[in-house]
């Protein structure tokens, strides 16, 4: 609801008095949400936060419920790279967005328990882990793969890492300090009857989190064994207990669209990461080869941000199998398994990310034999194969598999509530918007994961399909709604006029008090193909491939050149340019191909 003049003046007055920086316009990291007119308040201390909340609360009290002003928190505003809001979903969309940028929200302090630390809402998880390790001899026992999300943002959306004995990130919370919509400060811990429900996935609906106390573990180094595998080898290893043999395991699979991807053991497009915490006194090994280097992720970022290669792939999807094979071939593990040792915070995180991505992450329960993971993997590989036979290659980035213990059965809208005898798998599919076939693939996967035997739940911060969330969560939804209503009642606030309850959440929670007017323009702009030029992209990419002698680089270059010829000269060569032949990739076949190409 846009504010009238008198309301704006009242807000501006308190902004001037407070420790607040104001500006207009906001977008998230992946640029799929852009709000050009939104009022963004960078708040530097707790009293200023309280005044903003109280003022809007009072303004809303005198308005009709559906005319209320909406406010949400977003991460970011630290004036450094990767300080942004990393959700793909509409959680921060509102009339006013606040970012908690001051010291009050960025401290890391001891509590009276040696292994519990108080961490400011805006501290990024990687930052927290580094400081915990170096100054307090502690580590976060589980965290997202990305180090740049804030502790409050990750917890709000029930974010997760990996680790067979680990809860979701919010399972580490021992206490939270919040600023309520009416401006009052309150705390919640396990003495509160709804603590498990509220911490499981608070969705930013209970108040603005100022800090949270998180359970930590003794600082260690991490030993990581990286293994390059094929899909059938991965499946075999999962069946043999891969995810339960080491404390932390995750898997990255880059689809290369071979016809026989499910059975061919020759082509290694899977990397298994197996982590073991070891004593800090161990020497670092290969510590430059952090996980990021192994993923070849920086190569991908350079290709995307510098050259805009994704635009080329959107326009010429037949290049995707060649591009993905090239990427996999750049991952410097080779045939031998590799080992690296480094401090926990340096080994765990993947440090570089392209912004031009979309992500669908489904969480489902898994029994000890991990049959459910195998089922999901086989389904995804066969579906990708089906799309490939129609010359569509929907996933251009990677698919990540993680297994963790999850949260208790009674944790509200947590995506990882699980029965005592099960674990939780996070099955994460990352690609770019606008890739041919992606929307159809996403829909098919959504049907399979949610309506199929796995009964999966979508990650709150990634892709939220238009489904019945009340039905999906059943009694856990009922518990969440009861906790939300009790919270507002017990703190003398009206839920139906909450500034935090935006139309996005009203729809998901099926609450009847959605604000009638949401005038913010949501423009999914820059995701759409930019005005990049194929010839330039191809030229830059070919320059990079010039000194490479391996078969996949040579093949990609040949495909790029033929694309260029097609475009620039409308050459009769086009007539011979067929869709990529989907060959098997056995060593023999690769050798034959090499002969053809090099000649
Ligand atoms: C490249 C990339 C990699 C990712 N990897 C992972 C991963 O490994 N694991 C995983 O689980 N997720 C992952 N995500 C998803 C991401 O972790 C979640 O979407 C997370 O919620 C983002 O947190 P944020 O700090 O950016 O907060 P935002 O995205 O800005 O906010 C998330 C939600 O929390 C609310 N919120 C934020 N701060 C507060 C506060 N102080 N008080 C109350 N509410 C608040 C916001 O209003 C919003 O609803 C990834 C996302 C990207 C883009």
Topology:
Elements: H1 5-17, E1 20-27, E2 34-43, H2 46-61, E3 71-73, E4 96-100, E5 108-110, E6 116-120, H3 125-136, E7 138-139, H4 151-156, E8 173-179, E9 185-189, H5 195-200, E10 208-215, E11 217-218, E12 221-229, H6 231-239, H7 242-245, E13 248-253, E14 270-278, H8 291-295, H9 297-307, H10 309-315, H11 320-330, E15 338-343, H12 344-348, E16 358-366, H13 371-389, E17 398-404, E18 423-431, H14 438-451, E19 457-458, H15 469-473, H16 475-490, H17 503-509, H18 534-545, H19 551-569, H20 587-598
Parallel strand pairs: 2-4, 3-4
Antiparallel strand pairs: 1-2, 5-6, 6-10, 7-11, 8-9, 8-10, 12-14, 12-15, 13-14, 13-17, 16-18, 16-19, 17-18
Helix pairs in contact: 1-2, 11-19, 13-14, 18-19, 19-20
Per the CATH scheme, the topology name of the largest domain is: Vanillyl-alcohol Oxidase, Chain A, domain 3
Structural class: alpha+beta
Which ions and ligands are bound to the chains?
flavin-adenine dinucleotide
- What's the domain count? 3
Q: Report the count of strand segments.
A: 19
